[in-house]
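Researcher: First entry.
Model:
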Amino acid sequence: MLPNLRAFIRINMVNWVGMDEAGIDGGGIFKEFLCEVIKTALDPSRGLFAATKDHFLYPNPSASTIYPNDFQDHFYFVGRLIGKLIYEKLLIDVRFADFFIVQSFKSFDTNLLDLEYIKTYDSQLHANLKFLKDCSPEEVNSLDLDFSILTDNLGVLQKIDLKKNGSEIKVNAENRSEYISLYVNYLISKLEPMICAFKAGIRNVIDPGWLRIFSATEIGALIGGLDADIDVNDLKNHTKVHNIKCKNFAKKPADDDLLYMDNFWLLINDLPSAQKQLLLKFITGCSRPPLMGFKALYPPMGIQLIHDSDGLPTAATCLSLLKLPVYKDTTTLASKLNMAINSNAGFELS
């Protein structure tokens, strides 16, 4: 395991026969490598993380059963990778549950966790407990609850007492707040060993003080981008266009290419929000904009014009680079771009 993840890391690509591929990693290949490793580690099918119905990720409560000997090592490793991602100002197209972010990045007493912190854990459970909190005493009694819950660990149901002899203590209007508090803390305490290891991994790379000014939502945006509409003007202002033809014997850009780019940005501005997100994901690998705007996107956004080509646009996500053919008209541009971003065609690793 690398002792210092703050240091520059260079990746050598190896082909199928084990030989080094040509090219030098200036940072783009490492971005691609880091993001792919993180995506693999966070994939719920691997058992380390689980996803809510709204696709927010949090530690899988069954991870210690799936990986009984080294689950904490896995979470420590993933924490270091997320720390490196933040340190390098990179984005990945994932979202963590707020309660998980709060416990992983902020100094927080788990005993203070209340009902709102499980909203991103289980929205239905949150709704049920909120109903219990607000309903009439008669409705509480009609629910016929006691201080025990059923848990499912890889298909095995188990009854757990939330307090001593909990299955013999009925929930009523007077003690329902205690029941809710014990329920929430039980859910979160199951994840504590995973979260502690994950947090230790992050702090191996990131000084906790660096993130003190950010809220849980903002920290989530530092990792996976901001849940907001894409500001096309901001994106345009922080995009560098390469390979624009120049007028003969002059350094001024050719009028045709300038008009083509104007039409490109008008087209992007008129796209529905979902299509803008697909375009951004196609180019950068993340469908959401950076927390601090596109001036903070790394690597910076670029467009390389490809003359004398009518193929689909392609993208080098490791460089945040769109390779855009110069089509004969705006209709063709719109059609080809739509095909590329909706079929995820044309991906290149450059």
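Researcher: Second entry.
Model:
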Amino acid sequence: MTVRGLLGRFGAAYLLLLLILGLALNMFGVQANAGVNTAALLGAVMWVCLAFGKKNGRYLARSEKTRAVLGMIAIDLAIQAAVSVAAAMVAGASVLQLGPMLLVLLFVGVLHAAVIYFFVGMAGRQFAAAEARRSSR
């Protein structure tokens, strides 16, 4: 699998998890919140990174990790922007307030960037531990 493939899987997995979790919570009358969004994000990050390691028999090299993290942040910000615009339109906003929306996206982007960076590293440690266990058998 290439980094491009990893990013494609990440975008699809993240969107799918957001939709499934949003619909499931809505069925139970629970309003989606930032915790649900973050859970979907870290689930998608872990899944695609571990799948990359399993498929390639190795984890991301340093340059690949940098490209993967930056790509995941870009995809996350695009999804957050699309959701923000859609929410504003559903709420009946006739004009988008770009200033506040960009500030919120910046804040969420910084938090999500930290989550992505941390969990890409954690997936690497999990992959290395699993490989060590497998090779010791």
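Model: Note on the second entry: Residues 3-136 form one domain.
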